[in-house]
Amino acid sequence: MPAAPAPPTLRALLGRADFGLRLVVDDPGRLDAPLRGVHSSDLADPTPFLSDDLLLLTTGRQFAGWSDDDPGYADYVARLDRRGIAGIGFGTEVLRAGIPAGLIAACAAARMPLVEVPYETPFIALSRANAEAIAARTYARRTWALDAQRALALAALEPEGITATLAELARQLGGWAALFDASCSVVHEVPAGALDRPSRAAVSARAGDLVRRGGPGAAALQATAMTSGGVLAVTVQTLGRGGHLRGALAVAAPALDDAARGVLTSAVGMLGLALEQRHALARTQRRLRTGLITALLAGQRDLVAQVAGAVWGELPEGDVVVGLVTGTPAQLARAADALERHPGPVFFGPHGTDLVVVAPAGDDSALAALAPDAGLRVGVSRPTVHGFAAALDQARTAAASAREDGPVVTFDEVADLAVLGGAPVSRALAAARLAPLTAHDAAHGTALIETLRAWFAADCANEQTATALGVHRHTVRTRLAHIERLLDRDLGSFAVRADLWTALRLA
């Protein structure tokens, strides 16, 4: 925020050589305080007609006949002091030469600035000079506010309008600005990390209070900016309509005057409108994605490819896999955001309470990244070209066997296990089958389960198993014999091997 022209002060008037003013009684605090106006009166008590922060000009007519030690001087100055007058200007050579000594003494006792105004300087000249200074300051601030609002409007038209508007607001106000979403998480902040941790926590708490209140509102608090170490006034303003709040805007800047508050109000309106439009666009896109998923399941791949290609990019060509993602609405929302940012040709859309994903066969990077990050269950079908409905059934079957925060489960992994019944029954049977080995490993620190898993992965070859485990082949043979004794099973039997392999996969 550019520095505004200095406000008019009594010191500024004293600095005008053309006025020839002389300071008789000094008080630095009042000399440098903003001067709201200059008024003249010879009334004994002009206070009913005055406002504070004025320079009162007088020719001393009300003092006619007073001696220098008249107590009326002290009463007169005390009344003006209580009214908040910034100073007294005495016009000499009009009714008398010089300033009454009693007035000088009373002003000195009250620390009331007293200025001698020579006969050649008309009172109206002082009034006009102060009014012109106020007008110049007001004009400069209004001009800056118009330029700032124009810059905000241009920023809002950029491709990343919300981010650009926030950055422009922080630049114009010379401070920090942050945008909070409806959950009061920081979406953007400029400059990043400008507030210290306690201040940021206080701002987040205030934003949360306003958003949870559910209606439009604003609040102010004090926060320390790390960039300057100074104390900045922080204003928090909700964005959106009452009952449909989209978030909040927080700004930390030097004290805001009327012009700066007008700029902030404009930014609130622009950001609120942008968030409302973004929300409406996202809702429309979700509905379109849902419709395209329905069309895809109905076999209309060409139609879906044409529409999706025009809006989001090409639909994966050739063999694809269908993924089903299940979880809470918040988890699915995060998954959709992650898929939106995925660089590969992936299409997704809501389907009932789940999320359906279409990805190229052989590229499971998008789906694999979801499960451990968002706590979702993810199932993937076999590759297909047109059989999307059947592929979705396969993905649903696989997802039913998946674990929260577990890896992606493919249909091929569960297809051979169907003979054991439903997923809960399957896992219970598997746990019971492997219980002797699991208990022995836990009690004695052995690695029987690990050895059995490596043995199956090596196609039941002892030499390859030993290499994979980093042990001698005789160790592998000893462990396998121990497994047979604990399970009372012959690992040379195909049926036993199949049973244990199935149990390991389920477990």
By DSSP (H or I, 4+ residues per run), the number of helices equals 19
Residue runs with pLDDT of under 50 for 5 or more positions: none
Name of the CATH architecture of the largest domain:
3-Layer(aba) Sandwich
Distance between the termini: 63 Å
Could you characterize the architecture of this molecule?
α3 packs across α4 (101-110), α5 runs antiparallel to α6 and α5 (123-156) packs parallel to α8. The mean pLDDT is 85. The strands form three sheets. The chain has a five-stranded mixed β-sheet. It has a five-stranded antiparallel β-sheet with strand order 7-6-10-9-8, sandwiched between helices. It has a five-stranded mixed β-sheet with strand order 12-13-11-14-15. It is built from 19 helices and 15 strands. By secondary structure, it is α/β, with parallel strands linked by helices. The longest helix has 40 residues, at 258-297. The chain folds into four domains: 10-133, 3-Layer(aba) Sandwich (Udp-n-acetylmuramoylalanyl-d-glutamate--2,6- Diaminopimelate Ligase, Chain: A, domain 1), CATH 3.40.1390; 157-280, Dynein light chain 2a, cytoplasmic (Beta-Lactamase, 2-Layer Sandwich); 298-415, Alpha-Beta Plaits (2-Layer Sandwich); 422-506. β12 and β13 (354-360) form a beta hairpin.
